[in-house]
Fold:
Amino acid sequence: MTIQGALLGCLALLGLALFLSRKATFQLPRIEWLWFHGSVTWPIAVKAALGSFIFAADADSGTSYTLVTYGPALLMALVMLVSRLRKDAKPFAPGVWIFAGVAFSIPFTLFAGSGFTGVLPAVLLLPALLRRAAPIPLEAWFASARWSVFCVLLAVTATSFAAPENVIGLCRLDKCSIFGEVLTSPITNNGNFVGVAIAILLPLALLGLRATPLVLTAIVGLVVIEASGSRSAALSAWVVVVVVLLAAGNWDRRKWVSSLALACVLVASVVTAVGSFPREFATFRGGLWARAQELFQASPALGYGPTFWSNQPLELSLTANYSPHNIWLEFAVAGGVFGILCLTIAGITLLRKVAKEERYAIIMMLISLLALGIVEAPVQPGKFGLAPFAHLLPLIIGSACIVVGNISRRQEFAPISIKDVALRT
Structure:
């Protein structure tokens, strides 16, 4: 089977899953709906497929690229901020901590010559500084995530038929799929982005589904990740998320199963950050980790700023790739101990600030990010990195969680309509 056939099959399976789950009670309010698809769906679709039509093959940077790809996200960040300010929302501690780390890095990016684009990642975080006054049911976010995956898959599939050379590439020695070719993009220069993006969305897309649509959606995620050639990172995240969801099917088991999985991926990500590995380990990631450890030891307190790592090929003739390929080493190089503390405190306060009934969804998102973070850097809040929406999703969703009180999550929410939520917004 070709990748094109696999993509068509995935569209059919996901369409069936959407049909089977169409009776969802809740929908996102208009501002959050526009934010989700402007900040998540549109950038993924542009970088994975549509950008190959909009930009020339070598136009992977510059003002026009930033505005086209992230313009909707920046606009909706400001709109959501104004909306939350008008509703007398309270500060949201996890967002404040991440914002502190990003704001601290702005002088680094300005001195590095990034111009106004160095400030824009902080703009994306502005609505996460505040808790939404009127909470939103989690189920509304789940449905939007499923439609986001469908829209991205549709864009990639359509492009694979209209201009296959734009999204389908030849196998490399270190990156191939069972189809004998891989998904790629002239914007990201590899197919990893597609697999990583789907892995980030998958926890949200799977939550709230019954058995049949859950299995169908999980299969779609697996096929797309395999087609992207992203095995070490995205496939690991897929395995952990699906295993946890299946093992924690009973609500009484969710807390300890998800907590155990979170602890395991946290330990694994830390071990790869502090351990010593051969240079060739994990497709030469061992060499990247060793270099990042050297930089951290040379400037442990404040790091070098978010743009230093990717500028090394120009300044030091070092082939450094886009990041150290580890979530902790990314923060260690970019912000030193201060950056690591901001990330750690934000994660802890995020889990503490969210109501117990909603915490399972947040844990699942963190599990996916940490699993990816073992050999990738999905969270790079100081710049427009691989997936600038990765840290925004748990922050924005956590700041808008509905508090259900003592209602058992084994049952459905009380049958309120979206109008009841909208009236409070």
Remarks:
- Residues 327-353 form the longest helix (27 residues).
